[in-house]
Amino acid sequence: MEKRELESLKSYLNIYGHLHDDFTTYSKVYSMTTENIFGFLCKYDLCGKRVLTVAGSGDQRLNSYLMGASDVICFDVNDVCELHLKLKDEAIKNLDLEDFIKFFGIITKRNEKLLLDASIFDKFKRKLDWDARSFYEYIVEKSGKSPGKCVYYESDTNLSKLKEFDGYLNGKEYEKLAKILENKKVDFLNVNVCNLPEELAGEKFDMILLSNISDYIHYIYPNNALERYRQLIDRLIDNLNLYGVIQVGYTYSKYHKWENVSDFHIKEKRNKVFTSDIFHSVMVNSFYQNGTQDKVITYQKVK
Fold this sequence. Notes:
Elements: H1 3-16, H2 37-41, E1 50-54, H3 59-66, E2 71-76, H4 80-94, H5 97-103, H6 118-124, H7 130-142, H8 159-165, H9 172-181, E3 187-190, H10 196-200, E4 205-209, H11 217-220, H12 225-236, E5 240-251, H13 267-273, E6 280-285, E7 293-300
Parallel strand pairs: 1-2, 1-4, 2-3, 4-5
Antiparallel strand pairs: 5-7, 6-7
């Protein structure tokens, strides 16, 4: 992040006290995934493959590397995600698993949720790039006893759940990922998903992960959201290698009544645009761990 942008971000926090809740510039970030990423990715061979993913919590990127991807590029409209990715990388490379779990507020029987513990941050902050270090020093030092609340969304981060969704939270896999990350850097594109095909300029990937952007396409496209999202996906197909896969959408097993999500999660409406002869469903154990399954809508390029 450029120095001017970083100072603007700090100024925003100084005025408002926290990042806002919309998925745009200067919005909060999820500290850990809310999707069964590992359950989806384990169905594919990522060894030596190139992956493009929304940045989000950073867990799509980390699980892709753990499963053998050679190159993972992240994109997001939210500048804060780049700083979060850098923080997570250095935490994994420099902390043991127990400290990592505590630092990111992952709930265990011994650990209550407290994001960005200052004493743990001190153990690795000097390893951070200047922008991530400057930002998180500002957050940790200026935000009182619960610094994470001004940067991160509230979400369920119980370790028993996350171990299933994030393969790297399991013992030796964490150590394996730390070694992999020694030779990786954060590749981040600050771009709105609408402009992604132009930004990629013909680059090719074997996997494109769009997380649950599909739930919020009505904000991106106020009119004809499903049809316009389909047009975007059709354009991104040009950025796939043969047999490459796009994770078009992630639909949870249930939605709360107060959630304002798009029609993509309604099967009857979705299937009229994302027809079953072209787009397919992959089922994974639900985030809600209630015996149901979440549905991942995919496209695979076969010719």
